């Protein structure tokens, strides 16, 4: 990581502008969303180098002249368009807002899942609880409520979640099956996407999904549909409750985008319980995004921003960690890192952990 | 205006990052707010070149280690701090977030007045109504509800409103009294700030404030306190209602940050009624911020962003205009611009209008 260690090369003038951009950030966010939702980005993109005038846009977009104009002007200020001789043309930032599916997944996730709850970020930080979750229900964390969220919220949540994991699967599967595990324990396996990827990739492997009952019901329904219900097994538990069972003696324990859902203290406990469940030759594979392992500042920005979703909406006490913090917890729980592979998918890191030798 | 007429000089890589920044903008906004609210910016600023560590911050800020750390990491990504040898130092953007009162006024205005309502920007645009206002009450526009807004909302609204006008007053007063008006009509005079500035500046002038009853009650209470109740007069009306009276025969009609509260059609009507009320030698002085008259892009950004407050929160159909639109409406109403002065205060423009000669 080469960034954040020296002041930005930026004039005082530009920094002052940057401060105003932050102050008006909710405006720029909603304007970008509306420009996309009402098809204005698409229309301007379609006009190409020739551009399109306000009068032409009015004929094709079902909004008043006032509404289109106010969006266009803010879009100019945001660098989404440029405009010469009264004709609007898409600029590079607008191009990526329209065509980069990462931007649109992020934007929908922030709008439908996070926007309202982020208003209560201050209270969430003070109380160490996801106060913003109250906009959806009165659960303590989002996890038991996940299957009951409003349709659009649920859709945006899963699209965001899967977008990042899906990009990692292809390069991960050969790495995971290198040690030829007969039985994989998918800890916090959610809808079973990973379990099905494994059973597709290897015709003999069995996968046990450990999760809350709500998630398991969905996963097992999916297992039926994928015709792998004979090799995908549910294991009902609450990983935060030490009195609930933990699957013993799996060959490979798998935790993907999972530990970021817990506080440091909870992670150590979960890792210790995993250690207690592992056979001497079992592996624990941890897939996470660490902000310090991102090759570019843009990735670190997205990872750090995602942390605040955990603070205000998900559970109030977890986050995307710095890899150093995770390595410390892994060591403390009685494991060592046998392999440490960065740049999987969109900035994921795979840590292959084994039991430390007994003294 | 030299900006917006050509594509930004920006790599595809940076534009893609820019798109992610927009997608996570509500996060960066709330993080900046919390860093300021919890005194973290101040603490890091105070540490100067030496910087301050996370452990030291924990001793001085009443938040958990988790809460402080998650804010610091996102602050790094936003360029608010930089961090070397585990010590955080304020970067230029952080400096302006902390010390530039324009940034803090804008930020509070967006949080307390606009944030929640901006969630409904799409509906506001579709319906041409300020749907976001429902978070505060069931008024059609914010104006009749202004005096009943929650305390913190009202405070942020007035601080934002006055911040921009206050910076313009000093250079405006000599311009306005150049023509030695005996009676100024302050159209939409709100709490009376301009009226009191005039009576302070000139010991003989009389000022009549035309506004809604709620605003006038506050203004006249202030007039008593300023000991100018003998020269400041209330004139109760609703400027959107053509059946309500309009003050006739004033020497100088004054509209400051006023016409941006109305749609184009409403502005033309108000200007026509002013024309009908003017004596042959009366003046109409219009003070506004036009986004195309800002000397720098940062100003245009703020002005264009402010327009969306009108869309989603204030009335659903008004905005900060392009000067060309305003000049067209002024002409259409029967006036000509006798003097056109830019760069007053923080990017205001004064248009001194007179009646066009009769045919």
UniProtKB/TrEMBL annotation, chains A, B:
Pfam assignment, any one: Methyltransf_2
Limits of the O-methyltransferase C-terminal domain: 183-334
Keyword field: Methyltransferase, S-adenosyl-L-methionine, Transferase
Family annotation (InterPro entries): BVU_1015-like_N (IPR049480), COMT-like (IPR016461), COMT_C (IPR001077), SAM-dependent_MTases_sf (IPR029063), WH-like_DNA-bd_sf (IPR036388), WH_DNA-bd_sf (IPR036390)
Domain of life: Bacteria
Domain BVU-1015-like N-terminal dimerisation-like, residue spans: 18-88
Keyword match DNA damage: no
Keyword Electron transport in annotation: no
Gene Ontology terms for molecular function: O-methyltransferase activity
GO biological process, one term: methylation
Protein name: O-methyltransferase, putative
């Amino acid at each position: 990581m080469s960034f954040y260690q020296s002041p930005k090369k930026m004039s005082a003038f530009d920094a002052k502008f940057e401060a105003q951009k932050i102050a008006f950030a909710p405006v720029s966010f909603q304007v970008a969303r509306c420009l996309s939702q009402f098809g204005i980005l698409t229309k301007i993109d379609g006009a190409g180098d020739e551009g399109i005038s306000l009068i032409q846009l009015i004929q094709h977009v079902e909004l008043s002249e006032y509404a289109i104009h106010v969006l266009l002007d803010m879009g100019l200020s945001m660098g989404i368009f440029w405009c010469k001789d009264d004709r609007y043309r898409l600029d590079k930032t607008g191009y990526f807002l329209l065509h980069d599916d990462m931007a649109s997944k992020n934007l929908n996730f922030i709008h439908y899942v996070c926007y309202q709850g982020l208003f209560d970020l201050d209270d969430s930080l003070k109380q160490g609880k996801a106060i913003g979750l109250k906009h959806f229900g009165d659960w303590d964390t989002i996890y038991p409520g996940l299957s009951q969220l409003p349709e659009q919220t649920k859709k945006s949540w899963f699209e965001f979640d899967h977008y990042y994991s899906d990009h990692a699967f292809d390069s991960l599967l050969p790495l995971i099956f290198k040690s030829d595990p007969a039985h994989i324990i998918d800890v916090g396996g959610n809808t079973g996407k990973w379990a099905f990827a494994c059973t597709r990739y290897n015709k003999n492997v069995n996968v046990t999904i450990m999760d809350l009952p709500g998630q398991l019901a969905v996963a097992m329904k999916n297992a039926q549909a994928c015709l792998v219900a004979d090799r995908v097994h549910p294991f009902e538990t609450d990983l935060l409750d030490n009195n609930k069972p933990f699957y013993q003696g799996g060959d490979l324990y798998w935790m993907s985008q999972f530990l970021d859902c817990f506080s440091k203290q909870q992670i150590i406990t979960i890792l210790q319980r995993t250690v207690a469940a592992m056979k001497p030759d079992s592996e624990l594979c941890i897939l996470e995004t660490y902000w310090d392992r991102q090759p570019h500042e843009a990735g670190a920005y997205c990872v750090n921003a995602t942390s605040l979703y955990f603070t205000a909406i998900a559970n109030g006490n977890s986050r995307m960690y710095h890899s150093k913090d995770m390595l410390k917890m892994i060591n403390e729980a009685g494991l060592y890192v046998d392999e440490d592979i960065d740049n999987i998918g969109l900035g994921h890191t795979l840590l292959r952990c084994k039991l430390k030798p007994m003294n």
